[in-house]
Amino acid sequence: MPIWAFVRLAGRVTRGEPPRLFLILGKNRRLFRSWLRFAARLMPRGKLPRRETELVILRVAGLCGCDYEYEHHVRMARRAGVSRAEIDGIADRAEREWSPRESAILLAVEQLHTDRTVDDKTWETLRPHLSDPEIVELFMLVGHYEMLALVIGGLRIRPDGHLAA
């Protein structure tokens, strides 16, 4: 599928204009195609449940101050079963009653963002809840959305207004 067709299709799926991120990254066609394949392996076709994936993305977007990704993923998070109250609290790191697995995941996200690693205690907290492939995916998901926040900020990509929920 040509890139322009994919970008237009993405706009139809979101019931609006094509996402600005796709329009801008599509200017480098070869890189855009490779990035899409990689990104799709993390979301939506990753090993982590979609709810957890969206929690991770929203937390990373909040930590990085990336309004584009935060706004883009609010609607997806709602479809994945994340409540409005959970969404409202995730970016500002409000205390919530997460499941033990979600708590372990969010702790790892915080440490990866702040320290670029996880300490032994966090590692021990993750191990009972996630398999080795899930841990690898979690860390790559965090890194991917940290990278996107950097690219979005550097390229000054504004949020897609039609996606805000």
Automatic annotation (TrEMBL):
Q: Which GO terms describe its molecular function?
A: peroxiredoxin activity
Under Pfam families, the record lists:
CMD
The source's superkingdom equals Bacteria
Annotated Carboxymuconolactone decarboxylase-like domain ranges read: 31-110
Q: What is this protein called?
A: 4-carboxymuconolactone decarboxylase
Biological source species: Amycolatopsis antarctica
